[in-house]
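Re: weekly structure request thread

Next one in the queue (237 aa):
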Amino acid sequence: MLKLTPFLIMIAYGVLAWRFSAWRSARELDARSGALADPRLKAVVARLAAALGLAEVRVQVYEVPAVNGLAAADGRIFLTRGFLDRYRDGEVSAEELASVVAHELGHVALGHARRRLIDFTGQNALRLVLAGLLGRLLPGLGVWLANLAAGLFAARLSRQDEYEADAWAAALLVRAGIGTAPQKALFARLGGLAGGAGAEVPAWFLSHPRPGERIAAIEALEARWGLPAAPPRQPPR
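Done, posted below.
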């Protein structure tokens, strides 16, 4: 039993840390967000709701300048003010923002928030084991290598979640009559919209797949579904 104590402590720490992070994020979102009000965008999002058999998909605007979408641990969907500003300036279409909403709905539907709790606990356990083993073999480097390995493991799991949410979103967009063209068009320009972050980082360190890889995965799905590959559609100017 004593041998298991460090692992039990790590599991408890992981659960508590995840719950605290979710609580803190929820408070931040509550304080800095409001309901989406744009009529055209709401109309496109309503097509997603209809395809899901729902009366409404509620989207809120998170008042930060970053270009992003997110699904809170409680299932709420958010678009950032930075994304809405790009939409207002004609750089992003309503359909492209709807593809972001569909992607975040995919995270919710696939239970990725709960999976991340399990993943976080597993990463901490992996870090503990490797730090103990490598610390004996490589004093001074063992902890650093253990943290690196745990980080690579976390990034790989996160990329898997993103591919799954992309696929779920693609299916929803097709069902809603929007198609995948806006989804792929947004990915093609995402680096520029987000400031090119991650362009020089090795792929195995990234928490999200590179845009080209995401487009290729969507086109593979279209081929599997027997659909013609939709060309990326540019937003109106």
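The mean pLDDT is 81. The longest strand covers residues 59-62.
Next request, please.
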